[in-house]
Amino acid sequence: MKISARLKVLFIFLGLVIVIILGYVIYKDYYTDFMLFLDPKADRAHLMESIRSHKLKDALLLIALTAVMCAIPGVPNSIIGIFIGVCFGPWIGVLMNVIGNITGNFIVILLLRKFGLSSKTKDPGKFITNISHMKKPTVGITVGYMIPVIPSVIVNYTAVKLKLSLKSLLLAVTVGVLPTSFLYAFGGDALLKGNTKIAILSILCVVLLIFLMKFIRKEQVKSSAEM
């Protein structure tokens, strides 16, 4: 069954409405912190104490916002990932980013299992073929989640098409979103603390992702040659 264009638009519209609502609530909760952050005379120690004083409610709101933005095609959630690192530190930030991205991707996977891909969506057949002919398709799916330039909806569709088990899907999504989760959380923490070493490490992580993208392309070419 193919999801209709109207239903797709409805899902995206509902997602954007939820993003706006969650964003507004988070903005209200962090308004004082925003003002401190924009004030060049503000004491950094006081700023950090204020930002890091938020508890479970805001953590859940940010996880929910990450999940919804991850589920909407074409909407980048990197800014939220970095903001999470600013507000909750690197390690809790990584955990929150991972949970949010896993939830968002599984929302898409469940919708794709129910409705399929829109008839107007670009045919992902080549991607599916290349991944399915790899020696370990799950590895290809995992790397697909790691590369920000590959639309996650295409990776999710491929995973559904290959009929991966729930256990394999959970492992692929979790491992796949870890690199960017680390990048955003540690980058956000470094932004707040002014830590240049972590900033350099974040750049190295970007370079690593580029090499991973080249790896999957190399595997695709190799698989096509063996067919």
What does this structure look like?
This protein is mostly helical. The longest helix has 31 residues, at 196-226. The protein has helices at 5-29, 31-38, 44-51, 56-71, 78-88, 90-115, 125-132, 137-146, 152-161, 166-193, 196-226.
β-strand amount: under 5%
**How many alpha or pi helices?**
11
- Structural class, from helix and strand content? mainly alpha
Query: Poorly predicted ranges (pLDDT <50, ≥5 residues)?
Result: none
Number of strands: 0
Q: pLDDT average, as an integer?
A: 80
Query: How far is it from the N-terminal to the C-terminal residue, by CA?
Result: 29 Å
Helix content: over 70%
Q: How are helices and strands ordered from N to C?
A: HHHHHHHHHHH
Broad shape: globular
- Major sheet characteristics: none
CA-atom Rg in angstroms? 19 Å
Entry summary:
The protein is built from eleven helices and no strands.
Annotate the secondary structure layout.
Blueprint: H1 5-29, H2 31-38, H3 44-51, H4 56-71, H5 78-88, H6 90-115, H7 125-132, H8 137-146, H9 152-161, H10 166-193, H11 196-226
Main attributes?
227 residues, globular, mainly alpha, 11 helices, 80% helix
